[in-house]
Amino acid sequence: QVQLVESGGGLVSAGDSLGLSCAASGRTFSTNTMGWFRQAPGKEREFVAAITWSGARTNYVDSVKGRFTISRNNAKNTLYLQMNSLKPEDTAVYYCAADLSPFSTSSLTRIYEFDIWGQGTQVTVSS
């Protein structure tokens, strides 16, 4: 069974840092673009960051540029999101996702471009 399992969420204060992980199982995603999305209460799910299969290309939503860093370890089949200088508006459920198209170098940002999704991890930032 192919699964993506997020971990690392929690309750932090504004200005703190938090690191999320997404462990993949059931198949390797070393040839696939992976990404992070988030969904705040009452809002639509939105793109946060994505990274191509080799890690050579990353892209971010403007609101997290300079604060968040996406990375991956293909040997561990794991995706990461390091979040620094957190703000209350970063509060959301964070989801990792994978695109099943191999060796893509496109900048993927849309929900429909990703095929496999995790269950999400809650991040709450208090002011």
Verbal overview:
- By secondary structure, the chain is mainly β.
- Helix content is 0%, strand content 51%.
- It contains no helices and eleven strands.
- The protein has strands at 3-7, 10-13, 18-25, 32-39, 46-51, 58-60, 68-73, 78-83, 92-102, 116-117, 121-126.
- The strands form two sheets. Strands 2, 4, 5, 6, 9, 10 and 11 form a seven-stranded mixed β-sheet that branches.
- The radius of gyration is 14 Å and the shape is globular.
- The N and C termini lie far apart (40 Å).
Report the average pLDDT across residues. Answer: 96
Percentage of residues in DSSP E strands: over 45%
Order of SSEs: EEEEEEEEEEE
For the report, how would you describe the main beta sheet?
7 strands, mixed
Shape by Cα distribution: globular
Poorly predicted ranges: none
The first-to-last residue Cα distance is: 40 Å
Derived structural class = mainly beta
Summed up, the helix count is 0
- Rounded to an integer in angstroms, the radius of gyration calculated over CA atoms is 14 Å
**Tally of DSSP β-strands:** 11
